[in-house]
Write a structure and sequence with these properties.
The protein is 29% helix and 14% strand. The protein is of the alpha+beta class. Strand 17 and strand 18 form a beta hairpin.
């Protein structure tokens, strides 16, 4: 059953047509990641995952399409070995697991995993068949990672870049079903067709219409209601009117829904243009109609209609607090102050083209009746609800019903203007009763992976071998800064997210995603990490689950240790040259500053910290961070702690914990 293409491990991407051509190609022909089949006593699921790892809490679904239960997960595919290697494998987690290399059992363990490791194995260059079978404890709560080590590197999770698989008809069909499930939630089908709501996106509402008349331009609303795709090619809102003339009446009614008008703040257009470039807004937005859509990996939202959309002051208010009237908005909250928001609003208004003009003033009373008869309250708060009756999901599984419903191009219902591939995916989902029932299930890892794509995190961040979208789009907005584009140097781009789930602590990520951190980790960057408050907790818990790690409590040993000395320039590793520590500034920055270590202990997972300190370039080949270990447990310092590298790094870790207190 159901699968998704592995851009971030499991879920198919919603892009320009809700699925990019490249995703379709990889899903059909195979590619990165391994096949992962998960079975419980009564059902099974099939997908592609980019890592041999998982973490499932008690009461949580082992995958998005399965009910909570004890489960067995089987990963299968090939390791793409660049050169002949001699390695050892081990497990991490709880449950039972067995590893097969080239068809032969290489390691088997039960209960608490990690007490042993495989014999030394020789892996020849090329594709080496691999299979891993993991069974959770009886209560269904389990976590698992496959670990390896070699002659020139220490223990680490098996890199995602090595994993390959071949697709087949069963996997392709599972991919199609899972894609339809994602579309069902994304298009808010559940607001009309009752369904369970374990999947968080199923419960998300469209923007509130309360007070909308004080925010949006009436002529723009008429054009939008008439056909959203005329203003935004990939609009999620459907066309609901069979008579275009009704749009003016609805717009007239919506204009009567008022509240206190937003404060009007004058902005500086030139300053806003520079801020637009500095923040990297071009990564998600097309600012001019002649910009080539192919430059973006993810369908951009055009801004040359946004200036016509908002009333005076409303665009500033929206930029300052995007989620105020739309909790599940994908628009990032950058924590802009009044001046920044006003400057940006002035710039965006200056991009406006083809301002909409009312055909003629509509009748608000007719509009109110039309809002009721079209059941707008099913998706939008702020308008009166009306009695509505829609076909249950079970009745939508037949092709004949689908053709006359929202999936068709004619007849009653909402019309989304879906491509044939999108209709096929939704039809496949609706025909699969296990998939339909799975809307009641929640898997944190898959949620984080879906939202990584939905929020377009790759616009600013590199992930695995995929460069950020900004590498291609940022030159387009350089002219707004008043300077020629210059490629950013070391440390001048948002961080690589390849290791996000195993690197960052969930409690710290919750603060990061909710926008409540008191201090920026990289204050020198012109781009900022935005907040997504409505998704913060699920994202923060989902990323670690996708990497097979569980909650970690920061541990510090309460004893006198030379951590501060080891951090320093005299008798230490010289960390103070590039890194600040609380109020202490770095002493001799070379090429690029490092992060201030005051909150490093609260931000980083301890196991990742030790991997990084042992061999930074193993994790980031481009880093300027030195490697201090010269042998297995020997650093460049023979003192203190008798030159014991592990103890020295523990001492620095413990000192960083004290910095955060």
């Amino acid at each position: 059953m159901a699968n998704a293409h592995p851009i971030f491990a499991t879920i198919i991407v919603l892009t320009a047509s809700f699925l990019s051509a490249e995703d379709s190609k990889v899903a059909a022909q195979g590619g990165a990641g391994l096949r992962m089949e998960v079975k419980t006593e009564h059902a099974e699921d099939l997908r592609v995952t980019k890592r041999i790892a998982l973490a499932v809490a008690e009461g949580e679904s082992p995958t998005a399409l399965l009910a909570p239960a004890q489960f067995t997960a089987t990963w299968q595919g090939q390791l793409n070995i660049e050169k002949r290697s001699r390695v050892y494998f081990s497990f991490e987690g709880i449950g039972a697991a067995e590893l097969f290399i080239d068809g032969e059992s290489a390691l088997k363990e039960d209960s608490k995993l990690g007490s042993s490791e495989s014999d030394r194995l020789r892996l020849n260059s090329g594709l080496v068949p691999v299979k891993v079978v993991y069974t959770s404890p009886e209560n269904g709560a389990g976590h698992f990672r496959l670990i390896w080590r070699g002659r020139d590197f220490g223990k680490e999770p098996l890199p995602a870049s090595l994993l390959k698989h071949v697709s087949d008809e069963k996997l392709s069909q599972a991919t199609l079903v899972r894609r339809g499930r994602a579309l069902f939630a994304e298009l808010k089908c559940a607001q009309c067709h009752d369904s369970a709501s374990g999947m968080p996106e199923v419960s998300e509402m469209a923007p509130s219409l309360a007070g909308v008349g004080s925010r949006l331009d009436e002529a723009w609303m008429e054009a939008w209601v008439k056909d959203p795709k005329n203003l935004r090619a990939y609009a999620r809102m459907p066309k609901v009117l069979s008579n275009d003339d009704d749009a003016k009446h609805i717009a007239a009614y919506l204009k009567t829904l008022t509240e206190s008008a937003p404060k009007v703040i004058a902005g500086d257009k030139a300053a806003g243009a520079k801020k637009f470039h500095d923040l990297g807004c071009i990564a998600c937005h097309r600012s001019e109609s002649d910009q080539d859509m192919a430059t973006w990996n993810h369908a951009p939202i055009d801004l040359f209609n946004a200036g016509n959309k908002y009333s005076d002051g409303a665009l500033v208010a929206f930029l300052k607090e995007p989620g105020k009237n739309y909790a599940s908005t994908r628009m990032p909250d950058f924590g802009l102050d009044d001046k920044e928001a006003a400057d940006l609003a002035s710039f965006v208004r200056g991009l406006a083209v083809n301002k909409a003009v009312l055909t003629e003033k509509g009748d608000a009373s007719k509009g109110k009746a039309l809002v009721a008869s079209n059941h707008c309250a099913q998706c939008h708060e702020g308008v009166e609800e009306s009695a509505a009756s829609y076909a249950p999901l079970a009745h939508l599984s037949s092709k004949s019903t689908a053709a006359s419903s929202c999936l068709g191009d004619t007849g009653k219902g909402a019309h989304y203007g879906l491509l044939a591939a999108d209709k096929a995916a939704l039809t496949a989902f609706l025909a699969d009763q296990q998939a339909v029932k799975s809307l009641a299930h929640f898997n944190k890892a898959e949620y984080a992976e879906r939202q990584f794509e939905n929020l377009n995190c790759a616009a600013c961040h590199q992930m695995d071998d995929d460069l950020s979208g900004l590498t291609k789009t940022h030159p387009l907005s350089a002219k707004y800064s008043g300077e020629a584009y210059k490629a950013p140097g070391k440390g001048a781009t948002p961080p690589d997210l390849t290791f996000i789930g195993e690197k960052l602590r969930a409690d710290w990520m919750t603060q990061l995603f909710s926008g409540t951190l008191e201090r920026r980790t990289r204050p020198w960057l012109k781009q900022r990490m935005p907040a997504f408050p409505s998704r913060a907790k699920n994202l923060a818990e989902g990323f670690p689950a996708a990497y097979g790690v569980i909650a970690e409590t920061a541990k510090a040993t309460p004893m006198e240790e030379p951590g501060k000395q080891l951090f320093g320039m005299v008798g230490g590793f010289g960390c103070a040259a590039c890194h600040g520590a609380a109020d202490a500034k770095p002493l001799a920055v070379f090429e690029a500053a490092g992060v201030n270590l005051q909150f490093a202990g609260a931000r980083l997972r301890q196991d990742y910290y030790h991997r990084w300190m042992r061999d930074p370039r193993r994790i980031d080949p481009a880093t300027i961070m030195p490697k201090y270990f010269v042998e297995e447990n020997v650093t460049t310092l023979s003192e203190p702690l008798d030159g014991d590298g592990q103890k020295q790094m523990e001492a620095i870790w413990n000192w960083m914990q004290e910095l955060n207190e």
